[in-house]
User: What shape does this take?
Amino acid sequence: MQKILIVNPPSFAVKPINEVEYVYMAPYVLASYLKRRGIDVQIFDFVEGRPSTNGHDNSRIEGVLRCGNFNSELISKHVYYIGKKERFYTDFLRAYKPTEVWISNLFTYNWQGPRLVAQLTREFNPLINIKFGGAYATLCPDHAREHIDCDEIIESKPQDPIKFENIHIGFYKYIPQTFPILTSIGCPFKCAWCAVPRLEGTEMIQKDPLAVVDDIEEKYYYGVKRFRFIDSNILHNYERHLKIILTEVLKRKIKVSFCSYGGVNPLLVTPDKLELMAEARFQDVQLPLESCNDETLKQNNRPVTTNAWVKAVRQFKRIKGFSISTYILCGIPGQTIRDIYNSINFALEHGVDPVPLFFTPIPATIYEDNTRKLEEYHPNLFPYASNNMKVKDLEQLLVTYYKRGDYAPDYIQGERYLSSPAISERTDI
Ligand code: SF4
Assistant: This one.
């Protein structure tokens, strides 16, 4: 009998650890899809339950990697293993006895996580069929084929309808404080640094808005009080989508609040939309500026100018109840620390909280860079730091603007790390 275990692998992370990364959707969506089709399926999530690096036994230092600009600053950072200990996984395999293990992985620079899961699975029972998918497998299939010991690599199709499957909340052991929700896929724009057009396509497909509300209502009665839209373009086709969702949420008296992950396009902001969003408790809005330099935006094919962003901010400010933050892209090749602070100050002057978003060159974009190992492109290693954009200065941005406010500089300076191994092959089981 077919028994599928879906695995969300551990992270190999550089501090600070972003807790938002630990409420994953893709493995849960897939498991829900299979369960509704009568398949025996379970999830093993290595990082569920807000793991941290504060001394819990599920975190350990696993290696050291050099930051960008190493030759000049000699700065390295620890790489932490974040996740349940490996033996809990093998215990789970022993108890559940899956015939197949499907591993899903998001970040390309975290490829050691799925490699470890595949190794553990093979060692436990070489007859278990291993499939591997997710954004890393889709963006870097050759790298995955070379490094992940699996039977099949699954490259996801841009507009895979499974992505709209409602998550079966029972798969989460802890009810997420903020529940991720995806109501549309695709983005018609093609910003140079972004993988969304490659992963989701440029044609937008939206889920039936009433089905979205049914899903929100169901989760609300399980205790979820806040939802984060992770759509890339939530205001697209507003009259037939978000307007229906928010109006119906109000009509059904579902007392939840909403926030966005960055998909509020300043070009589509209008007063009527904002009034309804405020009424429906759409409270925390990410209105991405990325840079206040129009030349940089233009060079990167970004359709939103700084003027358009400012106009959108003004409209938000006329309505009470919104907290607005904005991503500021930090660490792109050729950038200077002065450029970054110009953008941060620009956001602050307009009453918007800047959130530094550290750059990583995503494969299949024009920034693809194969000169280093994938793991060396972890955004918190600042791979493109230079003497005009020093690691120390970028680290200071993290200290100042890291949202939880409890992050202290965490790096190692010195020659001895010149010869340090990168991430080790394996540690405890
Ligand atoms: S608008 Fe946003 S999602 Fe679309 S390509 Fe640009 S950065 Fe990516």
Observations:
- Residues 177 and 224 are 7 Å apart (CA to CA).
